[in-house]
Amino acid sequence: MKKYLSLLIILLILFFVVGCGNRKSNSKYTIMTSNFPCYDFARAIVKDTKDVDVKMLLKPGSEMHDFEPTPQDIINIQNSDIFIYVGGESDEWINDVLSDIDTSKTKIIKIMDYVDLIDEDDLEVLEDEEEESEEGEEEYDEHIWTSPVNVMKIISKLKEEIINMDKENSSKYEANAENYIKQLEEIDTELKNIVASSKRKEIVVGDRFPFIYFTKEYGISYTAAFKGCSDQSEASAKTISYLIDKVKKDNIPVILKIELSNGNIANTIREETGAKVLQFSSAHNISQVDFDKGVTYVDIMKGNIEVIKEALN
Fold first, then answer.
1. What is the DSSP letter of 62?
2. How do residues 222-279 score in pLDDT, each as one tens digit?
3. How far is CA 159 from CA 141, 154, 176, in A?
4. Which pLDDT value is given to residue 175?
5. Which residues are CB-neighbours of 11 under 8 A, at least 6 positions away?
6. Phi and psi of 279, rounded to 5°?
7. Do the Cβ atoms of 264 and 239 come closer than 8 Å?
């Protein structure tokens, strides 16, 4: 469990910095988001609308699991009209901040509330962090957006909240959301067709595994080194040996690694098996270059389609 030891100091600073000042410095609406999926979904809905600024706390190229807020980050949340976050383990720090947010001025949205969740204990992986949960506490995998079907649900709900914020542009938000969902439906259909016609229905991930919602949605079995986005990055010799044997036995043509990964495990397996290593993106964040280019979740999923097509054939 991540601990933000500096959070108390940050909140004390905010008490004196923010005071009773005005929240808005201009007439625009502001939507603050915690990570790239939240940012991209909100951006898609308000596309071509000059009245709304969408901002992302997580810097491009950074790991969301290592994020710690600055005092300015928390001020930005407090001054926003809507704050959108995921709600999983990576966002634990937000729970401490929310108690000081004036929810009559800032709408707080946790997108994990919009979909059916999968318990992390249900993940079948070769290595796991020895981390005990409090008795009776369930920990859900937070990577809900890896399923395009989940994203459709999220977009529909976010659209309603954004319209509540700015009713004047409601028709534009409706149209943008409809267009985005249409693109997601096309991706969903293509993925279903690929899996249905593929000669295998399994993948091997020589990395962390943030794809449980994706694999469950499309009926793909998996073997992975670590669950979710574990803090671990180096697998044991036993795990690597098992993955090598798995690739050889099942004639797996592609070993997957995730974005922003060093790829060490996947490359070790490749050296022993001759299988190809390809990146399969969880879309939790993108590089600064891609961010500046305006790369979207839809763009990422289209790239994933080509990867999964090769991995399953």
1. -
2. 999 987 666 666 789 999 999 999 999 999 999 999 998 999 999 999 999 999 999 9
3. 24, 8, 9
4. 98
5. 74, 96, 97, 100
6. -90, 130
7. no
Q: What is the DSSP-derived secondary structure letter of residue 20?
A: T
- Backbone phi, psi, residue 107, to 5°: -80, 125
Cβ-contact 281, 299 below 8 angstroms: no
Q: Quick check: 256 and 280 in contact, CB under 8 A?
A: yes
Pairing of strands 202-205, 221-224: parallel
Residues whose CB falls within 8 Å of the CB of residue 59, separated by 6 or more in sequence, listed in order:
288
Contact indicator for 152, 179 with CB cutoff of 8 Å: no
Listed as ranges, residues in the chain with pLDDT below 70 are: 1-27, 125, 128-137, 228-233
DSSP secondary structure letter of residue 100: T
CA dihedral (226, 230, 236, 239) in degrees, to 10, reads 0
The pTM of the full predicted model, rounded to 2 decimals, is: 0.88
